[in-house]
Design brief:
Layout: H1 4-17, E1 25-30, H2 35-47, E2 51-56, H3 60-68, H4 71-75, H5 79-87, E3 90-95, H6 108-117, H7 119-129, E4 140-145, H8 149-154, H9 159-169, H10 177-195, E5 200-204, E6 210-214, E7 221-223, E8 228-229, E9 233-235, E10 243-249, E11 253-255, E12 258-260, E13 263-276, E14 279-284, E15 290-294, H11 295-298, H12 300-303, E16 311-317, E17 320-325, E18 329-337, E19 350-355, E20 360-364, E21 372-376, E22 381-387
Parallel strand pairs: 1-2, 1-3, 3-4, 4-8
Antiparallel strand pairs: 5-6, 6-10, 7-9, 10-13, 11-12, 13-14, 13-16, 14-15, 16-17, 18-19, 18-21, 19-20, 21-22
Helix pairs in contact: 1-2, 5-7
Length: about 400
């Protein structure tokens, strides 16, 4: 006999989290281990008038692909996977594992290839889910956990205690969970509104964390059971070039089949110096040491805006810089574009312009070669003309 809380969880996710409507195509995905929850979700989608589309993928498939697949197969992004994320109106993902360490011996490089191969799917999901809710292409999604012995073991609990912990976190012990989530959302909205007035945040802990974030002008997101379920938080993305300090992680976590613990990360200012083949060399502003970062770690979205002497942020672990992040806003000169049109400073229309780093963006018609532009590199977006 199924735990009645599973049926309750399905109803909350379908009716509240993703708000399934009549005619919606709803993708249900997870491993066979989560079948009890998937079946309840299937029933709930039908009751809401939607069309459930189920994908049960054995957890062992990932291990077999990483062990036996060729690099071409690892990097392959299947057309059916692409179609599912393009066509679905709503998506519900269930996380459930019988062995959270199953990929511990997998080659990290092969895991990276497989992860990169699925980037188009993630990019489509992020693009659709960031649209206004009124847009017909907007994607409603949520992910939730189906408790197993493996998850309970990682938490040092019995399965019964772990199930109670998870389901209580989802407010499924309450008579009306949806009402409770709405009440939490209202409380968190007041917190988000308060934080949006702030300019800087500092977090310190007895374990050694001491980090400052620039948050002026940032939007705080209220998480009230709509996406990850359960949740209950507000969050933002700090200003990329106004974040500095140390974070000490004491709580163990499992990612990609590997458990990590006692991680110390530090953000430091670094300056780009030069490139040698696929390696890009930066100088640590604190020690003046030069260190290389591979081009694939920087990524093409950052490289197209990187210029000599640009000040960036480096993430340091165990004395080594493991990643570099460019500032969100960069100032670059236009090297190629069609001639500017006099008098068009307030009119619409745009044209392509090539920047000194090789990147091409759309700019207003009045922009000319030699102009220095302020650009939001995270959106490939022209913001203003700094100088002409």
């Amino acid at each position: 006999m199924n735990d009645p809380r599973i049926e309750k969880l399905a109803r909350v996710i379908v009716d509240y989290s993703v708000e399934v409507k009549k005619g919606d195509l709803v993708l249900l995905g997870g491993p066979p281990l989560a079948e009890p929850l998937i079946m309840e979700l299937y029933r709930a989608v039908l009751r809401a008038g939607g069309h459930p589309w189920v994908r049960l993928i054995p957890s062992e498939c990932s291990e077999v692909l990483l062990t036996e697949g060729s690099e071409e197969q690892l990097a392959y992004c299947g057309p059916l996977d692409k179609a599912s994320i393009q066509k679905a109106d709503a998506m519900i993902k269930i996380w459930s594992e019988d062995n959270t360490k199953a990929l511990s011996n997998s080659d990290p490089k092969r895991q990276a290839i497989a992860s990169k191969g699925r980037k188009p799917i993630m990019a489509t999901m992020m693009k659709r889910s960031s649209l206004p809710a009124s847009d017909p292409k907007f994607l409603r999604w949520t992910g939730t956990l189906f408790p197993t012995q493996a998850h309970a073991q990682d938490a040092h609990m019995s399965l019964r205690d772990y199930e109670n912990f998870v389901y209580k976190g989802g407010k499924l012990d309450k008579r009306d969970p949806v009402k409770e989530w709405k009440k939490l959302g209202e409380r968190q909205k007041h917190l988000a509104d308060f934080l949006e007035k702030g300019k800087e945040m500092r977090i310190t802990t007895p374990d050694g964390t001491d980090i400052r974030f620039g948050i002026a002008g940032r939007r705080w997101i209220n998480c009230d059971g709509k996406n990850n379920f359960p949740d209950g938080e507000v969050f933002t993305g700090p200003i990329e070039d106004a974040t500095e300090g140390v974070v000490q992680y004491r709580f163990p976590a499992v990612y990609g089949g590997r458990e990590v613990n006692d991680i110390r990360l530090e953000r430091r200012p670094v300056t780009y110096s030069y490139t040698d083949g696929d390696l890009y060399y930066f100088m640590d502003a604190n020690t003046f040491d030069l260190f290389p970062i591979a081009s694939d770690l920087l990524g093409p979205d950052q490289l197209k805006y990187l210029k000599e002497n640009m000040e960036c942020e480096g993430l340091v672990h165990d004395g080594n810089v493991i990643s570099v992040e460019l500032p969100q806003f960069v100032e670059l000169e236009v090297t190629e574009t069609d001639p500017g049109i006099r008098g068009d400073t307030a009119q619409g229309g745009s044209k392509p312009a090539k920047l000194e780093t090789g990147a091409t963006i759309q700019v207003p018609l009045f922009v000319e070669e030699g102009d220095v532009l302020k650009i939001d590199r995270t959106q490939d977006k022209y913001l203003s003309r700094v100088s002409a």
